[in-house]
Amino acid sequence: MGxxxxxxxxxxxxxxxxxxxxxxxxxTVKRGDIVAVVETQKGAIxxxxxxxxxxxxxxxxxxxxxxxxxxxxxxxxxGEDTAAPLQPEQQAPPAKTPAVEPVTARxxxxxxxxxxxxxxxxxxxxxxxxxxxxxxxxxGIDLAGVSGSGPDGAIVxxxxxxxxxxxxxxxxxxxxxxxxxxxxARSKREIPHYYLAxxxxxxxxxxxxEDTNAGKPAAERMLLIALFVxxxxxxxxxxPEFNGHMGENGFSPAPSVxxxxxINIRGGGLVAPAIHDTxxxxxxxxxxxxxxxVARVRAGRYxxxxxxxxxxxxxxxxxxxxxxxFGVIYPPQVALAGFGTxxxxxxxxxxxxxxxxxxxxxxxxxxxxxxxxRGALFLARIGQLLQEPESL
Amino acid sequence: MNRDKLETLLTRELxxxxxxxxxxxxxxxxxxxxxxxxxxxxxxxxxxALSELTGAPxxxxxxxxxxxxxxxxxxxxxxxxxxxxx
Lengths: 392, 86
Description:
- The complex is a heterodimer.
- Chain A has helices spanning 108-111, 130-139, 157-162, 171-190, 203-213, 224-238, 283-298, 304-308, 372-385, and strands at 2-5, 15-21, 28-29, 34-40, 43-48, 53-58, 65-67, 71-76, 193-201, 244-247, 250-253, 259-261, 263-264, 270-271, 274-275, 301-303, 312-316, 335-339, 343-349, 352-366.
- By secondary structure, chain A is an alpha+beta fold.
- The longest helix of chain A is centred in the middle third of the chain and has 20 residues, at 171-190.
- Chain B is mainly alpha-helical.
- Chain B has helices at 3-17, 32-36, 40-54, 69-83.
- In chain B, α1 packs antiparallel against α3 (40-54) and α1 crosses α4 (69-83).
- Chain A binds chain B through residues 138-140, 166, 210, 213-215, 217-219, 221, 223-225, 266-267, 290-291, 294-295, 298, 318-320, and chain B through 17-20, 33-34, 37, 39-42, 44-45, 47-48, 51-52, 57-61.
């Protein structure tokens, strides 16, 4: 029998509030299934399970605030008795491998979970259906100010739609700001950053996209960001010291590239959920994944695995930003690649100067792990890869 | 497709992408992306939705004709009229 525990969804998370169970005792689950929704400072997060089995007791109640590492449910291996009672020692925070994979094993905080036993806190929690929660989030409506017409006074979709009067976003935005503040303060306190910048001609990449997108329905068109993320992932293969996590025992390069794509949230805030195994995806598949991620972030729904384990962050300012950005590394990662807004700029080719579409790529990297020399080679490699867009 | 119907579609799709911006408050001849604070990904999603709903292909090469609310409505009116889907 395994225990499904509250995952750590970031170095700054101490506890989460169980918003919804998507399974019930007796349900069969397999690795990767989404089994619960947890409210955190970053919004409602869908929690995946990382083992196969049958759901036993649901230990945590809806509305309960559960510390990271404390049990949420029991998971029975095939053939185990679903009626097996929860043993007292299983109430304690994790002593061994948790059933959930996220950063627990990778961040220092997670190694010392809150010592207290789970203390249920129900105050301040509002019952609401997932659809209502989503809509309220997109509209910036504070659920606490809405009266519910569903079972047990739960807020349903219609309550949000009829209560169309918009309220200013309250705790959500502040919680997000606090989460960013905690992670970024830790980054600036612990990580000796160094910064590099490199101008790259995007003419070929832009022409490639024009040709690729011509005649395609809008839903299949590609944007530069897909090429940017792919180029970073490919470059990480050659320069592994920029892809991985810093832990108690130093840097561990990651075997795969889970690129965290920075996505801004309307009304304030930013998240960078991971696209897993980016190096193995085609640019088209990557574009679809980014598009899907942006849509889900806008709707306030992303998955625990996505938030927990990016191995490098890619931040692209898009087409309405400025020339370059100097990113702050998201711990325990060790690098962030930034792409400034592509713009026509004078470009010397031999002795001829003409106007080319140019972006400035920047690298923020951890000096405990790498030096500027390797950083420069890494950036130059990204620039070279963007000269061969058809190979990405 | 007539202007009123297109206006309803566009308002709904823009609301989906930028729920914090009210169509009544924007400059309809102003830069669409600035007025609604949307990036290239949002714009692509908007074009994808409108293209699917109206049947107009809306190729990238025409993006220059979709720069404001009014320009986009005029463009769609023209294209859906020609396509006979109105």
